[in-house]
Amino acid sequence: MDLSNILLNAPGIPLTQTELDAQLLKAACYGQTANLSALLIAGADVNAVDPHGNTALMLAAENGRHATALILIPLLDLAALNSANQLGQTALMLAAFNGHTTIASVLINAGANVERANPVDGFTILMLAASHGHTSMVSILIPHLNVLALNATNKNGETALMLAAENGHTA
What we know:
The protein is mostly helical. Helix content is 53%, strand content 0%. Helix 2 (17-30) runs antiparallel to helix 3 and helix 7 packs parallel to helix 9 (125-131). It is elongated and about 55 Å long. The chain starts with a helix and ends in a 5-residue tail after the last helix.
């Protein structure tokens, strides 16, 4: 039995909803799947957010916690899967930005919006992947995009191709 299960089941140590949710977010961030599962069973809110508006799924996607994402995704509806933090970033955007292709594939298969642009800067998921040189991620995204999405521009008028070239990511 892991530490979280011991503490969650200990008499006289009740956790508030806020504490459960904070621990869930921490477990998601660090990929502590046993703790995450125990916290969910204990009543932690899968839709809880940190002070920046990040959900457990966003933290898992950002940090490459594939096993954690696999636990969380089936618990979320489509709106929660595509929700954005205070910076306008979705879980798929965070996965793409950091090159976490396995998580991105699972999110796409679950219905994540591949064509969404960040309302703050206009960056699409493809732009995030291309500007950071994540070739495998770009390859995963392209079959899911239409021509308009492939040629979308951000608020500075830059396309994914322009951003890749600007950052030295050329063939």
